[in-house]
Each structure stands twice: as structure tokens, then as C-alpha cells.
Amino acid sequence: MQPLDSPAQQQAHTVSRQETATLSTELDGYLPRPLLTQPPVLRAPIEIRPPKIEGKGASDSTYVGVLSLFIDEDGKVRHILSDEPPLPYEFEQAAREAFLAASFMPGVRDGNIAKSRLRVEVVFDANAPTHSEPTALAP
Questions:
Q1: Secondary structure letter of residue 86 according to DSSP
Q2: Residue 130 has pLDDT above 80, yes or no
Q3: pLDDT of residue 9
Q4: Which of these, 5, 41, 60, 105, has the minimum number of CB atoms within 10 Å of its CB?
Q5: Are 79 and 115 in contact (CB under 8 A)?
Q6: CA distance 133 to 120
Q7: Highest mean pLDDT among 5-9, 16-20, 59-63, 117-121
Q8: Angle CA(10)–CA(92)–CA(137) in degrees, nearest 5?
Q9: What are 44-53's pLDDT values in tens digits?
Q10: CB contact at 8 A, 108 and 52
Q11: Which residues lie across from 125 on neighbouring strands?
């Protein structure tokens, strides 16, 4: 296994950010949390399994990152963008897989189901309880 944020993984993050500009037009129709009457809500708790990593101190470290989830009218996560602060590559991938498999009750604006953007803080903490729910952040 490669160390956290190897040059290849850093390049993957860079490519991902370049592709973000291309996605911006497609993602314009997703409303941020403050514009929704009711935010999207997880239908069931999700568990994000931390990856196994090697290296001194890796197993007792804490990693925090923010992801923007783009949730469609059916409650399915269609896109995920990494915000600041970013997670190390392996941790971001674990979070992406969990959120892409999750199901939400869609967001609502003025009584109508709406595409929505939800920012979540993801915390990998070796000393925390194993079950926790994501925390929504303001845009």
C-alpha cells in the first residue's frame, strides 16, 4: 500500500479539481441547504469504514474533511466534491463509497422536492465511538 497522499494520489486530487470546473454547469441546479425549506435526511445511518493504512501513528490519527454531496430528487447522491479541508486520499475514497451507497429523503423547497447540495464534515478518529452520523455544514 502506498503512503498517505503519495505523488500519484496528489495528482489524482489535482485532476479531480480540474474536472470540477467541467461539472459546475451540471451542478448549478442543486440548491444549497440555506435555500431549502427542509434539508435532505438520511433514510438510515451509514457507516464509513476507515481504510487500513500503514505508517507510524497512522492507526491513532484523526482526519477531518468536508465533502459536498449533490442529492437528486430521488434522494440519491449523484456527485461528491471534496471541499477544504481535504481528507487523505484513502479516507476520501472510503467516505465517497459510503455516501454514494446511501439513500436520503430529498430536500424540499416551498413544498416541492428539489435537488440539493449538502456539505458534510467527515471525521475519522481512532479514539471515537464506531457509530456516528455526518454533520451538515453551512455552504
A1: P
A2: no
A3: 46
A4: 60
A5: no
A6: 10
A7: 117-121
A8: 120
A9: 999 888 887 7
A10: no
A11: 62
Determine contact, residues 42/102, Cβ cutoff 8 Å.
yes
- Residue 119 in grid coordinates: 456539505
What span, in angstroms and rounded, lies between the C-alpha atoms of 73 and 61? 37
Q: Cell 452520523: give the residue.
A: 133
Q: How far is CA 86 from CA 10, 64, 75, 118, in A?
A: 11, 7, 25, 16
Query: With the C-alpha atoms ordered 27, 97, 51, 9, is the resulting torsion angle positive or negative?
Result: negative
Q: Are 39 and 137 in contact (CB under 8 A)?
A: no
Higher pLDDT, 28 or 105: 105
User: Which triple of cell numbers denotes residue 43?
Assistant: 433514510
Q: Which of 5-14, 23-32, 98-107, 110-119 has the lowest mean pLDDT?
A: 5-14
Residue 81's nearest CA partner among 139, 35, 129, 132 is: 139
